[in-house]
């Protein structure tokens, strides 16, 4: 008794819907011209368009990644340019230090030259002094003193020799001092030269790093810009192709509507199954048939027409009804999702929904009916 009541309730709802749909339709004996199945060229164009959409999406994603990468590189470049600025400042400081060292080296070289001149002069004086001593008497002062007959001369000679000895000692001390100064000056000069070379090496290293950094960024950013430019060109080309394919598809659809105008009642046993699965697993129930399929399986329109109902209905779940003209309508129930809205035109073989189990049924499947002037007819007799 309960099952009978539920069935009658479902049937009452669907009949009420069909009554409302037909009550507003004008009575006409003429048949409505409908589109036949899409030609292979149209299906191929749809396939190409779908593939092109996927390519456009993938390319846009790559472009987004490339732009993100360029943004990161721009930040790195800004950081590097700041480092370059600091490096240039360091180079200027190093160059100033090098210039200072070179100036000191020039001064030390002048001092070195002066000391060499002093040393040469002192060496010449010492040589003259030694020659003078030998000229007095082969450098034998005692023998020379004993040979003097005048005592006054002896005193003068002793004073002279004391002067000579003192002068000799002073000359030797001056030569030794000059020699030490020369040695220290040379050592200092070598240290200054070593420091200069080390600073010059640091400067060259800084300059080389600067050149390498510039070349790296120029290379990476240049390659990235070229890649982005190529991708943008390809994206424009893809979009132009999509526009052309969309226009072609619209032209083919209009041509199909003009050339193929068989009414629905002449398409018995020529229309496709609403669920494209093989083998077809179905069960006759109520006034229609349920096709069992996996959740998400595409549901297609068996024939072209206009969507007159696309909503949830108690007992039928997500329901879509297509008006094919001449009183013929097809019904698709228990869908997972509806892809068409009320008032939209659909073509044969076009996906309109996906298989589900909405409306409270346990198994995934599509409940399908064909009705003529509101009365259910055997749906399988219309399918190929």
UniProtKB/TrEMBL annotation:
Gene3D superfamilies: 6.10.250.3150, Glucose Permease (Domain IIA) (2.70.70.10). Keywords: Coiled coil. Residues 285-379 form the M23ase beta-sheet core domain. It comes from the Bacteria. The keyword Iron does not apply. Residues 42-125, 172-255 form a coiled coil. InterPro entries: Cell_wall_metabolism_enzyme, Dup_hybrid_motif, M23ase_b-sheet_dom. It holds the Pfam family Peptidase_M23. One of its GO terms (molecular function) is metalloendopeptidase activity. PANTHER family: MUREIN HYDROLASE ACTIVATOR ENVC, PEPTIDASE-RELATED. This is Peptidase, M23 family.
């Amino acid at each position: 008794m309960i099952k009978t009541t539920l069935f009658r309730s479902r049937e009452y709802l669907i009949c009420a819907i069909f009554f409302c749909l037909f009550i507003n339709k004008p009575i006409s004996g003429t048949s409505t011209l409908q589109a036949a199945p899409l030609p292979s060229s149209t299906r191929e164009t749809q396939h190409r368009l779908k593939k092109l959409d996927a390519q456009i999406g993938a390319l846009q994603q790559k472009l987004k990644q490339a732009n993100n990468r360029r943004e990161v590189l721009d930040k790195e470049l800004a950081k590097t340019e700041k480092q370059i600025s600091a490096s240039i400042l360091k180079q200027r400081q190093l160059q100033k230090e090098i210039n200072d060292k070179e100036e000191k080296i020039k001064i030390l070289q002048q001092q070195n030259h002066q000391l060499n001149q002093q040393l040469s002069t002192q060496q010449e004086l010492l040589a003259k002094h030694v020659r003078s001593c030998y000229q007095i008497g082969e450098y034998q002062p005692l023998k020379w003193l004993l040979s003097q007959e005048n005592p006054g001369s002896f005193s003068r000679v002793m004073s002279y020799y004391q002067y000579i000895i003192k002068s000799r000692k002073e000359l030797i001390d001056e030569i030794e001092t000059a020699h030490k100064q020369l040695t220290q000056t040379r050592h200092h000069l070598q240290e200054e030269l070593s420091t200069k070379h080390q600073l010059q090496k640091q400067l060259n290293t800084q300059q080389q790093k600067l050149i390498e950094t510039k070349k790296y960024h120029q290379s990476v950013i240049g390659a990235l810009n070229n890649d982005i430019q190529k991708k943008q060109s390809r994206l424009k080309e893809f979009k132009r192709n999509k526009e052309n394919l969309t226009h072609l598809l619209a032209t083919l659809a209009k041509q199909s509507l003009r050339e193929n105008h068989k009414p629905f009642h002449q398409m018995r046993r020529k229309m496709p199954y609403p669920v494209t699965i093989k083998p077809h697993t179905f069960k006759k129930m109520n006034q229609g048939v349920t096709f069992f399929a996996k959740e998400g399986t595409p549901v297609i329109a068996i024939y072209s027409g206009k969507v007159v109902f696309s909503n949830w209905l108690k007992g039928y779940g997500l329901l879509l009804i297509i008006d094919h003209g001449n009183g013929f309508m097809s019904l698709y129930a228990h869908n997972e999702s509806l892809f068409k809205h009320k008032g939209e035109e659909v073509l044969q073989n076009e996906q309109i929904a996906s298989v589900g189990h909405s409306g409270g049924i346990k198994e995934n499947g599509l409940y399908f009916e064909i009705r003529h002037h509101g009365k259910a007819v055997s749906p399988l007799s219309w399918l190929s």
